[in-house]
Structure formats: C-alpha cells, structure tokens
Design brief:
Rossmann fold, 6-stranded mixed beta sheet, 6 strands, 40% helix, globular
Length: 201
C-alpha cells in the first residue's frame, strides 16, 4: 500500500477573518483556531489511530495545530521548512482585495512562474518545495499513514503541481481551517478533499 498523507490546514488565525495574506508572517491561533485544532486532533486519533508521524510547517499556527494532533496519536512533531506557507515578502499583510486590485499579485504570479514580490517567493518555487517535501515524507514512511500540517496556499499550490504539473491551478483547491485532505504522492491521487466532519455545523 502506498503512503497516505493526511494534509491538515492549520486552525484559524486573525488574518483568516480579515482576509489578509499572512504567508511568512508568524501568527498565533485564535480561540476558535485552538478549538479547531483540538477537535481535529481528537478526530484523527479516533479514525486514524495508527498515524506513524506528524510533520509540520515551522510557523506557529501550524506547529500548534500539529502538536495537538501529535499528542493525541502519541508521536513526536517533525518540523519541515518545505511545508511553510507561500511567503510574499513586502506584500505580507495586504488584503486579498488589494493584492489583486492594486498590486496585481495574482496576475503577475500566474503570468510568470518565476516572478516574486520583493523579499518573497515565486509561485513556481513554492510548488517545487512543497511537492519535494511531500515526496520525501512519503519516501521516509512507506505504506504508512502520515499527518502533514501546513497552510491553505501551500497545500493548494502543491496539489496543483502534484496533479496537474502546474501551480497556476492552486485556487481550485480552497481549504477550510483544520480540514483534512488525503493524498497519495505516487501515483498522484486525491482520496479525500477538504473534510471537516470534526467541526460543528
């Protein structure tokens, strides 16, 4: 059986409420985000008790979510830089509306996969590093189930590269906070997408 990776987006942060881009900005979970992390941890421990490892982005919102899950299933957390969110440098903290209307961020990032805002990353680079991290994790855990806690844009870009060999389709994969998406890296397949059965409502 191929490695199954459970991709979990971190719990809610204030920027999610305000529709502000926090890529490399290191924000903490809101009270709701902490509860979401608790609920997804309980859920994974109940339905996937044999999880072999929990990997996380280095950013606090992901680490705090991952630690809840790791404690629930009884494994250690492993931090991987390749799982970090799409960092956009000088444009960090801008609203999504302003990124599109005033900075042409989405237009430029899709138009040129090597373009990056000052101090930030290109869309192409994000896709390469995220998928490389997933593949390495899968190689380290043959036939296991592994949890990977990351971020909305990073996961979306990774899925678009993994499935379409093109990061420009990343907006097709919109994820809710602490949703679970199950994938196989090789051959690439999505087994479940954006599941939030553990959340109220």
């Amino acid at each position: 059986m191929p490695t199954r990776i459970l991709l979990v987006r971190h719990g809610q942060i204030r920027a999610n409420i305000d529709s502000v881009w926090h890529g490399s900005t290191d924000a903490e979970l809101t009270e709701r985000g902490q509860e979401e992390a608790r609920l997804v941890a309980v859920h994974i421990a109940r339905v996937r008790p044999d999880v072999a490892a929990v990997y996380t982005s280095p950013l606090r919102r992901a680490r705090d979510t991952a630690e809840r899950i790791a404690n629930a299933v009884g494994v250690a957390v492993v931090v991987r830089e390749g799982l970090a969110e799409y960092g956009i440098g000088e444009l960090e903290g801008e609203t999504f509306a302003d990124l599109g209307a005033h900075h042409r961020f989405f237009e430029q990032s899709i138009g040129d996969l090597d373009w990056a805002p000052p101090g930030g990353e290109s869309l192409g680079a994000v896709g390469r590093r995220v998928v490389a991290a997933w593949r390495d994790i899968a190689d380290r855990h043959p036939s296991d189930e592994v949890v990977v806690v990351s971020h909305g844009a990073a996961i979306g870009v990774g899925l678009s590269v993994l499935l379409k060999d093109d990061p420009r389709g990343w907006s097709d994969y919109r994820l809710r906070n602490t949703s679970i998406t199950e994938i196989i890296v090789a051959p690439p397949e999505i087994l479940a997408f954006d599941l939030v059965d553990h959340l109220p409502g």
